[in-house]
Design a protein that fits this description.
Length: about 100
């Protein structure tokens, strides 16, 4: 991966977080980002400064978590593509000569 591309991906995660904050409703959790925001708000309100969700460390952990999930998604898609190609090849291969 181009070392500068990850910054672009992190920027997308950042934008997603900012957009999510604008419409955040703790009574209606829509996705993982909402859950993460709720936990960050909770630890901030309670002053839990040692939490991995607190402050700038919490923000960096959000970005790293999203990047990890992004990579897992890519790996899962790659695995499914290989599996699909293998199954396709096995099912559609011509019968062995007898």
């Amino acid at each position: 991966m181009n070392p500068y591309r990850h910054q672009e991906i992190f920027s997308l995660f950042e934008e997603q977080y900012i957009e999510g904050e604008k419409s955040f409703d703790p009574a209606e959790m829509r996705n993982f980002v909402d859950m993460y925001m709720a936990e960050r708000k909770r630890v901030t309100e309670q002053g839990l400064t040692e939490s991995s969700f607190y402050g700038s460390m919490g923000h960096h952990n959000y970005l790293n978590t999203m990047f990890d999930l992004f990579l897992v998604q890519i790996q899962t898609l790659s695995f499914h593509q290989v599996l699909q190609q293998t199954l396709h090849r096995l099912v559609l291969r011509p019968p062995a000569p007898s």
